[in-house]
């Protein structure tokens, strides 16, 4: 904690040295909140455009002036004669029991809020403003005992700090012992570093050992004395020289260990603001573009124009129903297969247009499935009750093929393998996922041999794995799509409906930025898109004249979606440029994405 500075008078003004765009917004954010918590403004705000001459380093410089005429009037945030920040921003406090709360919802405790604002001011280097907030509000950032404890750590008063540790209100004895161990280990290292071997040995035997917290660590530390060549570097094994960690680093680690009610976490307010921004992104049902910069002054919201909704190209090289298609992992190619027994590799050009790269015509029967190799250099294709072929994408050759009755590479037998209608392998190759019965999906670990079963109430028609292998999207006979979390114990987390399926296998996919959407074909000739978190149907794409059998979202371009249909065509969907041109960047305090990828 920095020494207490004399408070500003009501007539004084604070000049904040500009640090950068992010600091400007956060500082303004803090100052507005501070003014809303007290009876009158702490200070009038001025932003200096030139560096101030001061003894403190630039990031921590604050300048106090006694009159408002030091800066041109144009630099004043408001005209004090007509309106103050307090008039604009302050709100009456609401009583909730014995605790004062702020905000319309009455859930933010004033004491906690003031403390984290004060911590933010100190962490930004505004020590005078932080001290003034503590003095004006009567709410200290830390208790007197905690301040003493922190100073003792920085001064290296190890025995005193261990004694003070028991006076700062810790209830959990385990935390007290863990914190004591961290402090005494630092004492041990500093003694050893100062060549006080006997005192270090005494600390190890009479202080660290009796705590019975980490006996393995105590044995490790003893090596520092017994065998100097195998000493430990600040808690990291396998180093040759002992170097104690900095006391500031120790204090940071203790702050993480002790409960936040005792010591406020560093940059807690910044963390809460970042959480709020993330929640805004997650809640935005149309968010599908990278955000370069988000403002704290406006709410984030994307428009519908971020979802692929316009047909950009129609591919018509197949002569029969197109059953399957899939983008390569890098998004450079699109593979499609059809009832015409043809497999076509399409290349995505820099301008976003598709052209034919290869036509594979080795199959004698309709091709029902395609799978890319992890490096996108090879392709597996499977015909209806025929063979599996492996193709080299660059050379346009069929490298090898396996008859379905061919050589057995690994046997996987049992009552659950009576009928396998769909199959997938995780990207790390460690697990295989299969539909082994009408309503049962089996996840099998190749190495662990462990099995995990997902039981549905309806017949499973198809499924797809997310790219991170954490989720499974299951299409069912009853026109529902289920999202399963398959990490740990499998659990159903969401359901999607609205599309039509009564006769055919309809395939769905994950897609969009961070796979925030799912899409599916439909027997009503349309493509359906849902927001994955909310389950809301956000778009329905019309254009095909036959059943849409399969969809695939380009993993490298969140604005590119492909659909395959019984009308013998593939449609490439992209952003509706007309809608985008009519969207302003900021409107009514809401920030809109501009569609950049």
Automatic annotation (TrEMBL):
InterPro entries: CTLH_C, LisH, WD40/YVTN_repeat-like_dom_sf, WD40_repeat_CS, WD40_repeat_dom_sf, WD40_rpt, WD_repeat-ST_regulator. SUPFAM superfamilies: WD40 repeat-like. Residues 142-199 form the CTLH domain. Pfam families: LisH_WDR26 (PF23627), WD40 (PF00400). Residues 54-73 are annotated as: Disordered. WD repeats lie at residues 315-349, 360-401, 517-540, 541-583. The keyword ATP-binding does not apply. Keywords: Repeat, WD repeat. PANTHER family: WD REPEAT PROTEIN 26-RELATED, WD REPEAT-CONTAINING PROTEIN 26-LIKE. This is WD repeat-containing protein 26 homolog isoform X2. It comes from Solanum pennellii. The gene is LOC107020475.
């Amino acid at each position: 904690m920095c020494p207490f500075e004399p408070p500003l008078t009501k007539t004084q003004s604070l000049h904040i040295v500009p640090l950068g765009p992010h600091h400007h917004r956060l500082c303004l954010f803090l100052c507005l909140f501070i003014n809303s918590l007290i009876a009158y403004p702490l200070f009038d705000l001025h932003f200096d455009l030139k560096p101030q001459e001061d003894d403190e380093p630039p990031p921590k410089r604050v300048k106090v002036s006694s009159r408002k005429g030091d800066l041109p009037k144009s630099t004043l945030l408001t005209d004090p004669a007509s309106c103050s920040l307090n008039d604009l921003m302050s709100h009456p406090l609401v009583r909730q029991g014995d605790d004062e709360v702020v905000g319309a919802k009455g859930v933010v405790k004033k004491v906690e809020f003031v403390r984290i604002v004060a911590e933010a001011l100190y962490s930004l280097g505004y020590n005078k403003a932080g001290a003034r907030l503590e003095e004006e509000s009567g709410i200290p950032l830390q208790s007197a005992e905690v301040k003493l404890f922190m100073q003792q750590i920085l001064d290296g008063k190890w025995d005193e700090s261990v004694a003070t540790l028991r006076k700062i209100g810790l209830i959990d004895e385990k935390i007290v012992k863990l914190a004591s161990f961290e402090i005494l280990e630092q004492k041990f290292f500093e003694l050893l570093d100062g060549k006080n071997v006997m005192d270090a040995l005494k600390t190890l035997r009479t202080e660290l050992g009796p705590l019975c917290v980490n006996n393995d660590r105590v044995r490790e530390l003893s090596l520092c004395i017994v065998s100097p060549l195998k000493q430990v570097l600040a808690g990291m094994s396998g180093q040759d020289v002992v170097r104690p960690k900095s006391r500031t680093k120790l204090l940071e680690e203790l702050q993480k260990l002790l409960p936040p009610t005792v010591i406020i976490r560093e940059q807690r307010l910044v963390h809460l603001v970042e959480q709020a921004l993330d929640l805004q992104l997650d809640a935005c049902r149309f968010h599908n573009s990278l955000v370069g910069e988000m403002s704290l002054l406006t709410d984030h919201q994307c428009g519908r124009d971020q979802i692929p909704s316009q047909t950009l190209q129609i591919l018509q090289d197949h002569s029969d129903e197109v059953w399957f298609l899939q983008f390569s992992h890098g998004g450079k190619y699109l593979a499609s297969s059809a009832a015409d027994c043809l497999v076509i590799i399409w290349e995505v050009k820099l301008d976003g247009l598709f052209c034919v790269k290869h036509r594979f015509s080795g199959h004698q029967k309709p091709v029902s499935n395609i799978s890319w190799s992890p490096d996108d250099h090879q392709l597996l294709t499977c015909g209806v009750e025929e063979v599996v072929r492996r193709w080299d994408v660059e050379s346009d050759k069929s490298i090898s093929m396996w008859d379905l009755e061919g050589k057995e590479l690994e046997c996987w037998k049992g009552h659950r393998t009576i009928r396998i209608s769909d199959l997938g392998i995780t990207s790390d190759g460690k697990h295989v996922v299969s539909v082994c019965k009408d309503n049962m999906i089996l996840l099998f670990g190749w190495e662990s041999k462990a099995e995990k079963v997902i039981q549905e109430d309806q017949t499973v028609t198809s499924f797809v794995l997310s790219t991170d292998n954490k989720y499974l999207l299951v299409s069912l006979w009853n026109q529902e799509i289920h999202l399963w979390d398959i990490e740990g114990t499998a659990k159903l987390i969401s359901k999607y409906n609205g599309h039509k399926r009564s006769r055919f296998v309809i395939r769905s996919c994950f897609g969009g930025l961070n796979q925030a959407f799912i899409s599916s074909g439909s027997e009503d000739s349309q493509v359906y898109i849902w927001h994955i978190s909310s389950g809301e149907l956000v778009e329905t794409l019309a254009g095909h004249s036959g059943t849409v059998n399969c969809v695939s979202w380009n993993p490298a371009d969140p604005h590119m979606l492909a659909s395959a249909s019984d009308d013998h065509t593939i449609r490439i969907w992209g952003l509706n440029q007309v809608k985008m041109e009519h969207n302003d960047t900021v409107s009514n305090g809401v920030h809109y994405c501009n569609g950049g990828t």
